[in-house]
C-alpha cells in the first residue's frame, strides 16, 4: 500500500517529521498536496473527522492524524521503533512536539492567526526566553536520552529522525545561538549526522522532495530573533 | 499494583487529565506529591530520564510521561479505550493537548517563566483571539467527534473524561464567553454531564482529592481576559 500523506506543499513544518520517518524507513507514500495543491489539502481535510489539521495520513478507511500519533502508528506497523520502548519513545516524541509548539510561539506569541509583523516586539521577548532557557532545557533532556548510537540504543527509530529535524531546524532559526551551545550536546550532534547519513535520508536530502527551510514554516530565520 | 502519580500538589493542571481517567476507571493510585510535597516532586523527576516534566506515572521499573502517552498506556493496560479506535482516540487526546497548550499561552504569551502580571497587555490580545477564533474551532471539532453517548460510541473512554475537564476548565476561565457559545455544542455539554455522573467521577468531585480551579493552574480565571 502507498500511504497518502496530506500536508502543506510549500513548507517542511510539522509534516516533515512524518516525511523523514517514511523516507528513512523506505515506506512508499504520496505527498498529495504537493501534487494537488493547498486547496485540495483543505478540501480533503473535511472528509476526515479524525483530523483537526494537517498533517494526516490517509488509510484505506479513515485517517491517522497528529504527528506523534502518526509516528507511533508507523512505528508499530512498520517496526520503526522497538516495541519494548514504545511508551518511552512516544513520550520523547511528545516532548519534541512541545518544543515545536514553543518554537512556533516564538514568532507568533500573541495570536496564531496574526502575522509575525504584527507581533514583532512580543516575539523579540519570547525569543530571548526561548534561546536562553528553553533551548538548553530541551536539548539537555534529549542529550540524556541518547543510548549509544541511537535513542533506542542499537537501532534508529522515528525519534532519531525527529531529533535530526530539531537540530537542523534550530540551526536554521538560531544560527548564532546554536553555534554557542552545540558543543554541550555532543551525542545529539553525532546523532544528527548519523541520521543524515542513513541511506533513505541521504537520498531524500538530495532530492527535490526536501523543501528548503523558509519563513513560512515552523522554524523561521528572523535575524533579529537570534543572538549568541 | 497501586500506581504512583507525580504531579504538582496544589493545582489540577495537566495532571488532572490523568487523575480523572484513574478515578473514572477505579484504578488504584497514590498522588505522591500531595503526600510528600513539591520538593519531593522535583527531586523524584531527576530519577526518570523519560520524564521532561510532571505529570508522570511511576511503574515497577521506569516511568510513563506526557499526558497523552499516560492515557494511551492506561487505555491499553486497563481497557479505558476500545482497541479498534486507539489511533483515533489518541489523535483526539493530542488535539486536547494542543488546546491546553494554547490555553496556557493565553495567560503566558511571551514567556513561560515570567509572571502573568508582566505580560498582561499581551495576554489581553491573546485572549481575544483565543475566545473568538480558537474556542469555536476546537469545540466544533470535538462536538463532531461525539458518536452517540460517548466519543467512542457505546462506552466511555479517557477522551470523554478529558473533554469533561476541557468544558469545566473553559467555563471557569471564560464564564461569559462559554455562556454565549455553549448552546452550539449540545452533544459536548451532554457528554460533560454524563462524565460528571459516572460513579467514579461523581465520588471524586465530592472528595478532597479534587483540587479547586485556581489561578496557578492551566485554566485561570482572570476576569479581564473574558468577554461575551
From TrEMBL, chains A, B:
<keyword id="KW-0808">Transferase</keyword>
<dbReference type="InterPro" id="IPR004046">
    <property type="entry name" value="GST_C"/>
</dbReference>
<dbReference type="InterPro" id="IPR050213">
    <property type="entry name" value="GST_superfamily"/>
</dbReference>
<dbReference type="InterPro" id="IPR010987">
    <property type="entry name" value="Glutathione-S-Trfase_C-like"/>
</dbReference>
<feature type="domain" description="GST C-terminal">
    <location>
        <begin position="82"/>
        <end position="225"/>
    </location>
</feature>
<dbReference type="GO" id="GO:0004364">
    <property type="term" value="F:glutathione transferase activity"/>
</dbReference>
<dbReference type="InterPro" id="IPR036249">
    <property type="entry name" value="Thioredoxin-like_sf"/>
</dbReference>
<dbReference type="Pfam" id="PF14497">
    <property type="entry name" value="GST_C_3"/>
</dbReference>
<protein>
    <submittedName>
        <fullName>Glutathione S-transferase</fullName>
        <ecNumber>2.5.1.18</ecNumber>
    </submittedName>
</protein>
<dbReference type="InterPro" id="IPR036282">
    <property type="entry name" value="Glutathione-S-Trfase_C_sf"/>
</dbReference>
Amino acid at each position: 500500500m502507498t500511504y497518502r500523506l496530506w500536508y502543506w506543499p510549500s513548507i517542511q513544518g510539522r509534516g516533515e517529521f512524518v516525511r523523514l520517518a517514511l523516507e528513512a524507513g523506505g515506506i512508499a507514500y504520496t505527498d498529495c498536496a504537493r501534487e494537488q495543491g493547498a486547496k485540495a489539502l483543505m478540501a480533503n481535510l473535511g472528509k476526515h473527522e479524525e483530523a483537526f489539521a494537517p498533517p494526516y495520513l490517509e488509510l484505506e478507511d479513515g485517517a491517522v492524524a497528529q504527528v506523534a500519533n502518526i509516528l507511533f502508528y508507523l512505528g508499530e506497523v512498520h517496526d520503526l521503533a522497538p516495541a519494548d520502548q514504545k511508551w518511552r519513545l512516544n513520550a520523547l516524541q511528545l516532548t519534541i512536539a512541545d518544543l515545536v509548539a514553543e518554537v512556533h510561539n516564538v514568532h507568533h506569541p500573541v495570536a496564531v492567526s496574526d502575522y509575525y509583523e504584527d507581533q514583532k516586539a512580543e516575539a523579540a521577548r519570547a525569543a530571548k526566553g526561548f534561546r536562553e532557557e528553553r533551548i538548553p532545557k530541551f536539548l539537555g533532556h534529549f542529550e540524556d536520552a541518547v543510548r549509544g548510537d541511537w535513542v533506542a540504543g542499537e537501532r534508529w527509530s522515528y525519534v532519531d529522525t525527529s531529533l535530526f529535524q530539531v537540530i537542523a531546524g534550530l540551526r536554521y532559526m538560531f544560527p548564532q545561538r546554536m553555534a554557542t551551545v552545540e558543543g554541550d550536546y555532543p551525542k545529539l550532534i553525532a546523532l544528527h549526522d548519523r541520521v543524515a547519513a542513513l541511506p533513505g535520508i541521504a537520498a531524500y536530502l538530495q532530492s527535490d522532495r526536501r523543501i528548503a527551510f523558509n519563513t513560512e514554516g515552523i522554524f523561521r530565520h528572523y535575524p533579529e530573533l537570534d543572538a549568541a
